[in-house]
Amino acid sequence: MNIQKPGPGTPTPDWDITHLREHLQAAVDLEFWTIPFYMTALYSIKDRNSDAFKLIMSVANEEMLHVQLASNAANAFGVTPTFDAPVYDDRIGIPHLQFALDTPNPTDIFTPHSAELGPLDLARINAMCLIEYPEWLTAQGIILKQDRSAYGSIGAFYDALRYGARQYADAVRGNVNQVDIFKNFFSNFPTQTVTDNGARGLAQVMTLFEAITEQGEGKSEGSSEIPPEFRNTADDDQPDEDHYVKFLSIRDAAAGLPATYSGDPDPKPGTPGHEAQQILIGKFGDFRVTLAALFAGAHPGHFGREMSALGGYVLNCWKLGAVPKFS
């Protein structure tokens, strides 16, 4: 069931609180899905000094911030986020997004594309561009959907989430399992947490959503620059560029895509590649448990170590001839 934003004199559409909470968990799912997908392409690049490596690394780092922001928003509305193992299958696609719903259809531009894990090739960089495709390049208005898997872009998804969240401002509770791990990387960010109840807390939630969309797709038409308050101030060589612009520059670089490792998605048991995959599966499983604990109010001291170590396990798969596998 689609519920479009009303015009003058028409009734206001609404979700019940269950739909809102389902969409908040879906936001966490979507942001979390991108991390293994981007990391797999990132560590397939042989030259770590290449522009492509640096750009994708900067995006992957901000996707971890997005997981934090989406989880903080979820907790503010009474949703303790879960972190199930993402699925990477072209038959299923990218969670909660159906790009062909957009007008014009961006899949006509970014083809071929793949939702399966693999090296940085044309299919993967096209998928990255689709994920971060700017909503303002389409003709869609705000559409609320009961089906949380029927949005044409991340921007459309978050527009609906904002619109639904405003209906339940009274449900916002501040200081519920809020996490602020990345504040030292974004020193101009006003707040990465929800500390107030009600309308004031809702305004903080809206800031979190704005940061996600501005960093990802540069939501403001006519400008692809990330607003200064949402820029990485620590370790991004191009902090003003949104994810879509970064990915597009990789795709359209005159020199072409960088050299990458190749790998077998299903190496035989007992081979070094298979063993590397099993290690990564175990480590990523541990990381998911740690994330769930972190956003349920625990304070696991090993979060930073686990997060930083994942890249090495991904790279090891590639070096041993296997496509990284996370579950």
From TrEMBL:
Residues 24-251 form the Iminophenyl-pyruvate dimer synthase domain. It comes from Thetidibacter halocola. Residues 214-239 are annotated as: Disordered. Gene3D superfamilies: 1.20.1260.10, 6.10.140.1530. This is Ferritin-like protein.
